[in-house]
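Example record used in the benchmark description.
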Amino acid sequence: MKNKFFTQLLQLRHKLNQHIQKIFNIRYLKKSKTFNFLLSLTVGVIVTTIGITTDWATTGTSTLTYKTSWIGNTIGSGNLRVQNNIEAMFVTPDGTVYTNSHWDEAGTEAGIYKDGKVIGALEDTHGWSRGGGKAVTANSKYIYIAMTQGSRGNTKEDYPPEGTTWYSVRRYDLTGKPAPFPEGRGWDKSMLITSTKSEVTGLATVGNELYVSDFAANQIRVYDTETMKELRSFTFANPGAITIDSQKNLWIIQSKNAGKPAKILHYSQSGKQLSQQIADIVEPTALFTAAGIAINHQGKLLVAENGPRQQILIYDIKDKPVQTGSFGCKGGIYAGVPGEVRDLKLYGLTGVGTDASGNIYINSNGFNKSGTDLRKFSPSGKLMWRSLGLIFVDNADADPKTDGVDVFTKQEHYLMNYSKPAGKQWTYKAYTLNAFKYPQDPRLHTSPDGTFVRRIKGKPFLFLTDMYNSFLQIYRFNPDTDGKVAIPAGMFVGTNSADKPFIKGNWPPHQPKQGEWIWRDRNGNGKFENNEYDTSKDYPYIGGWWVDSKGDVWKALRTEDGIRHYPLQGIDAKGNPIYSYGSMEKQTTPNIFNDLRRIEYFPETDSMYLSGFTVDHPAFGDDAGVAGSEIARFDNWSKGNRTPKWRIVIPYDTTGKREVSTAAMSVAGDYVFAVTVKTAEVYVYNAKTGAQVQQLKPGPEVGGESGWIDIPYGIRAFRRSNGEHLVFVEENWKGKVIMYRLAG
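Model output (structure tokens):
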């Protein structure tokens, strides 16, 4: 209604200006600043008067000044940026690093790095049912990567039949273009199919021979590097990564299996097992032998030990293998202050190599694929460069106590300096997951992506939810015992639609067989134990979660009686927040909504913000991933008011094509922010009136681009003490979090 009045007044101003000019027939009035000022002031007074007497949402005319930045990736824009994960890598004598991974959202499953820069990517590894893998090697002419190729239905080109996956080796030239061969398979004849049962787990070349670990068949297969024809094979149980020593013999990881520990075994090129082996290891994930290349490591075998040591172990292999040294801090990221990032603290090792000058290259992938952390060190151990790609399906939130200086994602902690240029404001401060002390940490068994940082009674807590709103995880901090690590403290899950455990599989142990549950770590050991569950049953379809500034938890269910309020019952002796079904309050959804999706309550003002589909603007189909068609604000919520102060229509799908829809909302300070799914545009509304005041789009700092918003909490806003608003937006496509800064 008020939008209409405002538009009419602007039209009136324009017509009045024309009539006055005609009456006086004086040309200078058209350019007179005084005249236009007085006329605008008059109209402004009228508009203000209407605004005082109504609560209708208006479209504002003012705009906010903002800048774009990002966190979590060394490179913020362009086709070449640090990939989501590195699961295997190979280093050449000149320091070129070739990598491979199963998946990268922007199609860089296999990257090429040198001198701290991404200089290229292997083409055509993404889409068309293709993906990368966990092995890579190269010689002076070609790059070879493990890959997968799924079926594509009936096509004229060469694809596997329905229900079949090719596990292959694909050959590339050194620029990253596929290099076909006479009997090659796939649409461009560059693929060597090695199995239809399991992926390739190791690759290495020596002379004109390519060695391939065929895990399912328990075979090492040998191919001609030029013709790609199989030359021979030999039996090897559970083969993994392969490297070649200076005698042109093979060192091969034998992966642990069925209770048998891992080993590293020594074989000749012909497949004869030699006497040397290495058994004093726990979790070897990568190998590299200098083979006469690296001056400081001649005759040495480098082993990435991904067990509790989290180090590169160095073995002299001239005779019987003897460990002669190690690289990196013993205990890795958990040494010293646990979780604190330091140059020589490693975590989740997936790759190691050296160049001709003895420089060492190491990739840490975190645990449960936390993200790329590729580093180059001098022979003396000095960090030379570091490339980070820490974000994948993730968003950030700011610590309210530190005024946004500390920012957290689901596993990372960043220290911010807002005086620096865009993309340089963040420093990777800590990795908050301890996979060895807390192996039942939900982050190791699920895929959370939405982060809430809260201070409850002055203490920091981390709350995480996922793409489907199926749970809410709770973490506490104890610097005295765990440094920077977030300790599992509690968890909410929803009710399954059938009488069976909500989470399938063996994790978490002791979970109730039916209904929903709340877990609290009563004894503080981070384990899910039998006496630590509270159970209930409720409507199964969750619209959203919220944690308010007092620590109360709110849940929106997609039903008429769909708001659940879990008041904080205190903090127990171990530091865990206490919630229970016995203290839960059921609250009625305001009748304007018929499908509630998001909820944010602010106890300081007793204001509730809800989004969802309404009676006036219903859903087209059942798109569970969007925020709805309207956002409404309700004041005096705790006193029972269910009449909205204002309601605004947000972008939503009316065609079933989902071309226009809103993924997420966030309220902070003076504004309500909402972000669209496919265009990733942020709509900014005045929190008091609902008037739209701005629309944010990715700026030149990030190349003016963003991927889709994939998660229900793909936007998170925070107001700093100087009035500046920080707006964090998921940018899954190129592995970062976009950060908008709105001037105060």
